[in-house]
Amino acid sequence: MRNHNILPYTPEARDLSRKLRNSMTKSEGLFWKKTKSSQLGVVMRRQMPILDYVVDFYIKDLGIAIEIDGSSHENNFLEDATRQDRIEELGVTFVRFSNHQIQNNMNEVLAELRELIHDLSD
């Protein structure tokens, strides 16, 4: 199992993460309701600062960043790709789901995450 206990982050990212925890989107709220309290067998953190960014959700013990992409991500594709590349350089695995997937196919999303968690736990 990979150890991702300490990832660098800036004070600005930490401050932003605190603010974002109090203003989750509808999709983030639905996802959090289904994954908090170790419902997937792992500890999930929300709005996790990494470098000078904030990822929507993070599984620290496995180094999995989970992003829920809404319409704002469509306009920021290059920025998101750069952000993802920089974070992946730290050994973090990125998983992206759309708002549509979260709101309409939650069981499939959870099944995909369970499979990834299982694969990375070996």
Automatic annotation (TrEMBL):
| Record CDD domains | Endonuclease_DUF559
| Taxonomy, superkingdom | Bacteria
Alphabetized SUPFAM superfamilies for the sequence: Restriction endonuclease-like (SSF52980)
Q: Which UniProt keywords apply?
A: Endonuclease, Hydrolase, Nuclease
Q: Which Pfam families match?
A: DUF559
Provide the DUF559 domain boundaries.
13-115
Matching entries from InterPro entries are given as:
DUF559, Endonuclease_DUF559_bact, Restrct_endonuc-II-like
Instruction: Please give the Gene Ontology molecular function terms for this protein.
Output: endonuclease activity
This protein's name: Very-short-patch-repair endonuclease
Annotated source species: Nonlabens dokdonensis
Supply the source organism's classification: Bacteria, Pseudomonadati, Bacteroidota, Flavobacteriia, Flavobacteriales
